């Protein structure tokens, strides 16, 4: 039987009390030493990195940006931005020449695309379900709910003596 700790129902002996007091004194001294070390480092100009790697060491740009994107919750907008950069690869060269992604509404999960003619807008509307599926494959399920096709920009309105008030003039028959 060990004499280190009293048994059930026994009073602690002087040796046990001394051990408890010694342990408490060591912990208090360690705490005072840690506090003194922190004050000393603060006077020297802050915490400094030593020979071993720790959280204060410089970080490469790529991992730093990835960490920032993750901390801020920007994964989906950043991924959609990457898709906009790869638009010709996703939709094909012909469609990419005539239809350009304008913006992404994160709340509605809608990708807004501008086309330069009604023919290409109609083509994109027919391809929209397949494009949404393809985008969701790349970005993750539910990232893009729908593609909204904007009407093509018509020629600038010209006002003059031969124009009827309120006339929209010659324009594309988008609709």
State mean pLDDT (0 to 100 scale).
Answer: 76
Which overall shape is indicated by the principal axes computed on the Cα atoms? elongated
Query: Radius of gyration, Cα only, in angstroms?
Result: 35 Å
Proportion in helices: 40-55%
The helix/strand series, from N terminus to C terminus, equals HHHHHEEHE
Quaternary structure type: single chain
Please describe the biggest sheet, giving its number of strands, its sense, and whether it closes into a barrel: 3 strands, mixed
Strand order of the largest sheet: 1-2-3
Strand content: 5-15%
Low-confidence stretches: none
- Indicate the structural class: mainly alpha
Measured distance between first and last alpha carbons = 94 Å
What's the count of strands?
A: 3
Task: Describe the 3D structure.
This protein is mostly helical and 175 residues long. It is 49% helix and 10% strand. It contains six helices and three strands; from the N terminus they run H-H-H-H-H-E-E-H-E. A three-stranded mixed β-sheet has the order 1-2-3. It is elongated. The model has no long low-confidence stretch (mean pLDDT 76).
Entry keywords:
175 residues, mainly alpha, 3-stranded mixed beta sheet, 3 strands, 10% strand
List the helices and strands and how they pair.
Elements (H helix, E strand, L loop, with lengths): L13 H30 L17 H12 L2 H11 L1 H5 L1 H6 E7 L4 E6 L2 H22 L6 E5 L25
Parallel strand pairs: 2-3
Antiparallel strand pairs: 1-2
